[in-house]
Amino acid sequence: MNNKKTKKVAWAPATLSEYDGVRFLHLDSIWVQGAMRIRKPQQLELEYIQRMMVWMLWRESSQVREGHAVQLGLGAAALTRYCHKVLRMQTSAVELNPTVINACRVWFHLPEDDKRLTVFNADAARWVAEPERAQTVDVLNVDLYDHDAASPVLDDEAFYANCHRILADGGLMTVNLFGRDASFARSAGRIASVFGSDQVWSLASTKEGNTIVVAARGVQVPEREELERRAATIEAEFELPARKWLRLVRPLPLSIINQLRSEPQT
Predict the structure, then answer these.
(1) Which residues contact 121 (CB under 8 A, 6 or more apart)?
(2) CA angle, 205 then 209 then 212, to 5°
(3) How far is the C-alpha of 144 from the C-alpha of 155, rounded, in Å?
(4) What integer pLDDT is reported at residue 149 of this predicted model?
(5) How far apart are CA 116 and CA 75, in angstroms?
């Protein structure tokens, strides 16, 4: 018999606000953890969340809906709803805070689990480290912040190595980098050291300060004409601003990577 007492975790409570037809999720702070337009729950409301879908440019238009999509960090479930309901992909979400999962079920139209949707109440670092996850994910969205939203909660090379490991060949990861203590150069350098500098790109920052990094496992970038064709298809079919994404995307500066690699290891 195990007499050890389980330590009770005091989770930051999920709260909400509403303004001009949009419902916002908070974690007991002013910081917005996600949003949903009440009359259009499947629409991606926040610009940085839309940009988390930029991986679509790296996939053949005929294959955009295929495969397994995973979100690390549920937020207001916008990406999870979109991948599940709009793209109709096999979808998994991993969220540590149970109050966020409950809030999304009650307030943000997150469906109950079904044959295409599984929501894990789990630690993302442990989830991606599980051996059985290897090469089972085609699209990985990483948006991991606590109630202070100061910097990513998971942001070391070991974590990104496991993200790379769970991606199938040709798989794509998007990461939201945001917060007063976040460093684009530091985080992007860690991602590039795992994925390779030729497999990492970024978008220009949003006006709110969100920078989206894209990393791929063995993706061949098509010619510009093909990217433009894919962007036009995405806009026509999904009403997402893919032409704008294409204007904003850029290779990761090698100067950042080289500078980080030259720093002494601690």
Answers:
(1) 95, 96, 98, 101
(2) 45
(3) 9
(4) 55
(5) 19
The per-residue pLDDT for 6 is: 45
Residue 216 neighbours by CB under 8 Å, 6+ apart: 58, 170, 171, 172, 173, 195, 199, 200
First-to-last C-alpha distance (Å) of the chain: 43
| pLDDT in the model for residue 145 | 73
Task: Write phi, then psi, for 249 (nearest 5 degrees).
Answer: -75, 145
- Here the tokens at position 121 are 């109440």
Instruction: Give the Å distances, CA to CA, from 69 to 65, 110, 129, 156.
Output: 9, 16, 17, 22
Strand order from edge to edge, sheet including 200-203: 117-121, 90-95, 68-72, 137-142, 167-177, 211-216, 200-203, 249-251
- Looking at residue 178, its pLDDT comes to 79
pLDDT, averaged in runs of 10, over the chain (266 residues): 53 85 85 89 95 97 96 96 98 96 95 97 97 98 73 88 98 86 82 93 92 95 95 97 96 71 59
Query: pTM of the prediction?
Result: 0.90
Of the candidates 264, 258, 152, 263, the residue with the CA atom closest to the CA atom of residue 197: 258
Structural tokens at position 69? 């999509």
How far apart, in whole angstroms, are the C-alpha atoms of residue 71 and residue 104? 14
Please state, in angstroms and as integers, the Cα–Cα distance from residue 66 to each residue in 63, 76, 127, 217, following that order.
5, 23, 22, 16
Residue 144's Cα: distance from chain center in Å? 8
